[in-house]
Write a structure and sequence with these properties.
The protein is of the alpha+beta class. It has 2 helices and 5 strands. A hairpin with a 2-residue loop joins strand 4 and strand 5. The structure holds copper (II) ion.
Length: about 120
């Protein structure tokens, strides 16, 4: 009986160790998969409100909507691919932008005025 219990304890112990190792391996695979996903160039079409234009830095500061899979709504600056995109842009207007790149290195590659009020505009005014 003692032997049976001992065998059982050893068996359960080994099983637990094997399970723990497998869990670790799965966790590592998941991490690697996440890194791979993160390293892929992506594009988003989002709306935002223009808060500032910084031509010296080639940056437009936007209060932007949620960027799915990247970041939530907030106010921040984005580098702009072409200075022509922010030429004549007014502060406070709602714009539709295309963001492209490998997070966290994304830039605005397209920008146009949007007449419909952005969700960000309603929530953050
Ligand atoms: Cu942001």
């Amino acid at each position: 009986m003692v032997l049976v219990n001992l065998a059982l304890a050893v068996g359960v112990g080994l099983g637990y160790l094997a399970w723990g190792r497998q869990a670790l391996r799965l966790e590592r695979e998941l991490d690697a998969a996440r890194r791979e996903i993160a390293a892929v160039p992506r594009t988003w079409r989002i709306r935002g409100i223009v808060r500032a234009v910084l031509p010296q830095a080639n940056v437009v500061v936007l209060t932007h909507e949620d960027i799915p899979g990247f970041m939530g709504a907030m106010t921040m600056g984005f580098p702009v691919k072409d200075p022509a995109l922010y030429e004549g842009l007014d502060i406070g207007v709602t714009v539709r932008v295309t963001l492209a790149g490998i997070p966290p290195n994304v830039m605005i590659t397209a920008l146009e005025r949007d007449e419909a009020p952005a969700a960000a505009a309603r929530d953050r005014r």
